[in-house]
Every structure is written in C-alpha cells, then in structure tokens.
Request: fold
Amino acid sequence: MIKHLPASSTADEICAILVEDGCVVVDNVVRPQVMDEVAAELRPFADATAFGADDFSGKRTRRTGGLIARSPKSRELVMNPTVLGAVGKMLGHATSFQLHLTQIISIGPNEPAQTIHRDQWAFDFFPFPKGYEVQCNTIWAMTDFTEENGATRVIPGSNHFDDKLHFAEADTEPAAMSKGSVLFYTGSIYHGGGANRSKAIRTGINITYNVSWLRQEENQYLSVPLEIARTLPVELLRLMGYRLGAYALGYVDDTRDPIEVVRPDLARNGFRPVLESQKADDFLKTPPQGSAQKGADPS
Reply:
C-alpha cells in the first residue's frame, strides 16, 4: 500500500520511504485555499489548453505548462521547503538538482487509465543503473484525489524492478489524497494517471525536479520570458537552471555563471557560483605522485 506521512515529516523520513517504495504521500502540506488561489491564477490558461492528441497524453486530459511565468502563487509550491528538502536528499548524489517541469494535469470524466510507465523514460529510454535516481517528482492535489476520479496510480516498490516492463491498471494502487497534499514519486517508479469514472475533473499540479546534468523536460529559459525572470528571486532562478549544473556545465562566455545574464548586478557585486557538493573540489585536487594510471591521457 502507499504510505502516508504528516506534513511535519522531515526530509530524511520522506526520503527513506522514497528509497524503499519509490512513492509516498505527504498529507496537507498546504491549506486547500492555497490550491484555490493557484487554480484561479491558472484558470484562463487551463481553459485555453487543448486536450491531448493521443491516448498517452489523454484525449480528455489537459496539460498546461509554463507555471512559473503564469502563476506567482505556484512559485510557492515549486520552492516549498518540505519538497525541496526531500528532493535535495533524494538527488543528493549529484552536484545539484533543477526544476524539470511544471504543469497542471486535468483529467476529465470518462478518461481511461494512462499506460503505466516510468517518467525517466523521457531521457531517450536510457537504462539508468538501478538505485541511481535522476528525478524526484511531485503531484499536488488541486482537488481531492480518489480512485473514482482518476487519482495517480503507482506500483509501490517498482523502483527496484527491471526496466521496460508492462503493467495493467489492476497492478497499481491509487494515490488517494486530500486537496493540498503531495504525492512524491521517483523517476524509476511505474505509474500512470488513473481512469476518471466520476462526473468531475480531477486536477493536480505536476512539479518535477531532476539532476542538473540532464536536460530539462520543460525549457525554463523559453517558458519564462526574460522580463519576468529578472523579477524572480535568485534561489528560484538557480532552481530553474540559471546556474552551473556541475563544475563545467552550463557556463556562459568565459565560464561566467549563467545567472549573471539575468542579474548583471550579481556580477558587479562579485557574485560567483556555489555548488552544493565538494565533487568539483575533489576532482581538481592534485593526485598523489605516481597515482596516475599507466597510459592515461594527461590532458
């Protein structure tokens, strides 16, 4: 069964279940009114979004992205301390992590269950080693999630399964949760949107994070116009990808931190990039005399 934790849970507690089960629901992380405020800001965009073009996207499902630019309130969800703490623990094996995508998923009545899949297949179906997670995903309940209205369905523990397996809806469990709660799940867990057998629309916000050495699914640089990006907090800009993803990933010109393009004042103030681990320092340390492998390229 899908485990549930209270909103007071620590990052370590959330991460421990994610490592074991690949999924966990944290109940009542924000008040239901917060979700109403986000929904109000995004309603014009959601209403204008077309239904999916195929069965996987859902021909009765709308997926609305670009939330950073379109909804100031949704930025609070992206930067939620409970979420970022757990994601940081889960993806702490990499130098840093970044925002992977933001979208509303609105599943309409009579939508059948989505094909069970792994989100990490987005990376060209690359077979990542077992136990090496490249994504930590969240779905915020904008409406109550029930089995009847299409709650996301998962297979707890399937993060340990082999890749490219096939499953049916009957093999899964519904992640039932109340409005304002969050389903955490890894990129390696088998899951899918549930069938909506109710008369109402089931709506959730999918906010996903991935390790910074992989490409983002949603291009944040183009989704958020520069004039809006320049008004955002530095911490959010860095999470969106205006940072070095590792020691030499993503620089501009002469190794400048990309955030200086958005915030030139940081360069004038002597701002320099900060990495979340010591991997770069370790890599640059001079190896002991004679430790180089025979025949290694000295460059």
